[in-house]
Amino acid sequence: MRATQSEIDTAVEALRSGELVAFPTETVYGLGANAADPAGVAKIFALKGRPADHPVIVHLDHPRYLHRWVATMPPVAERLAAMFWPGPLTLILPKAPSVLEIVTGGQPTIGIRVPSHPMAQQLLTAFGGGIAAPSANRYGRLSPTRAEHVREEFGDAVRVVLDGGETSIGLESTIVSCLGDAVRLLRPGFITRSQLEKIAGPLTVDGAVPRVPGDRQLHYAPATPLEIVTSDDLEARAGEWTEREQKVGVLALRPPLNAQRHMTWINAGKKADTYAHHLYNHLRTLDRVGCAKILVQAPPADERWAATRDRLQRAAGIGGPAPDIGAE
Ligand code: TXA
Ligand code: MG
């Protein structure tokens, strides 16, 4: 889980010379650049094919340098940070004046995260500054949970890829905005709504949602069209494809009732965290099989599955703004 000193030296040198460094976090791999270098951050946008108005998260090793990035830290944000950092939580906060426009997408706010992954911590501490990093995938595609996913997607365009093995959580961080008096859940993640509410009190749910790229339909999507269906319908719906001799992929929480030719069935089990950990990898596998369709069994309704439901709904192209999802 730790990089060698020479790997870290090479990565820091790359960041200082405006190059990109992919690194593991506990959620997914990030595609990092020096957050104070506009040309470096511009390379992230170019490589991902990401629209310029979509802000990127700044990663820090510790909140001690927060004042360089954040204008004011609301008390509720202090409490959330004290509870969940380092960890899979991104806070949207009022930005400090010096923060680059390319980092914030021209907005008056900044996303900050202090990741807990030891290799991310090593890199951030050695670098000594903020690292701007979205997930290390092309715009709209599945986030990488292994170093080889980054290499497959970007090849040598990324100067350094630090390999920290498979990420433990497997879905992107929970994003919470703390602006004025309102605390809003913008993207569900491993840290659940009730965990947040224990610290922050009831979250604000309204229409005033800052822009997040995840609100675009077909975000976090495999290449194969994906549809969410109920458990009762899985075999019959799969049959519609296999009868026509077309390949179909199924991602389920149970084994199939019957085996069918042309059907690749993945039983991802009923444990929310394990399912989330493997989700993107399973979708990559089904993509590679060359199916005409991926059918996904609708996950349970309880809040431990909120992040998974959110990503699957977006992958199916039925994603709405995150606050509508997992609001139960
Ligand atoms: O787990 C994660 O958050 C990973 C790892 C690498 O840290 N990063 C990640 O970044 O998922 P990205 O760019 O793929 O998704 C971050 C989301 C985007 O939807 C972005 O628009 C939103 O955070 N975001 C960043 N800054 C923001 C801001 N100032 N206001 C609103 N949304 C913001
Ligand atoms: Mg992303």
What does this 3D model show about the protein?
This protein is an alpha/beta fold. It has two domains: 5-200, DHBP synthase, CATH 3.90.870; 226-315, Rossmann fold (3-Layer(aba) Sandwich), CATH 3.40.50.11030. The chain is built from ten helices and 13 strands. The chain has helices spanning 5-16, 38-48, 75-84, 101-104, 118-127, 147-154, 193-200, 234-242, 272-289, 306-315; strands at 21-23, 30-34, 57-59, 89-94, 109-113, 131-132, 160-161, 174-179, 182-187, 226-229, 248-252, 263-267, 293-297. The strands form two sheets. It has a nine-stranded mixed beta sheet, with helices on both faces. A four-stranded parallel beta sheet has the order 10-13-11-12, sandwiched between helices. Strand 8 (174-179) and strand 9 form a beta hairpin. Helix 1 crosses helix 5. The chain binds threonylcarbamoyladenylate (TXA) and magnesium ion.
Largest pleated sheet: 9 strands, mixed
Radius of gyration: 20 Å
Question: Can you give the mean pLDDT?
Answer: 93
CATH homolog superfamily of the largest domain: DHBP synthase
User: Which spans of ≥5 residues are poorly predicted at pLDDT below 50?
Assistant: 320-328
H/E topology pattern: HEEHEHEHEHEHEEEHEHEEHEH
Tally of individual domains: 2
- Helix fraction? 25-40%
What is the molecular shape? globular
Strand order of the largest sheet: 7-1-2-6-3-5-4-8-9
CATH structural fold name of the largest domain: DHBP synthase
CATH architecture of the largest domain: Alpha-Beta Complex
Gap between N and C termini: 36 Å
Q: What's the level 1 CATH class of the largest domain?
A: Alpha Beta
Number of strands: 13
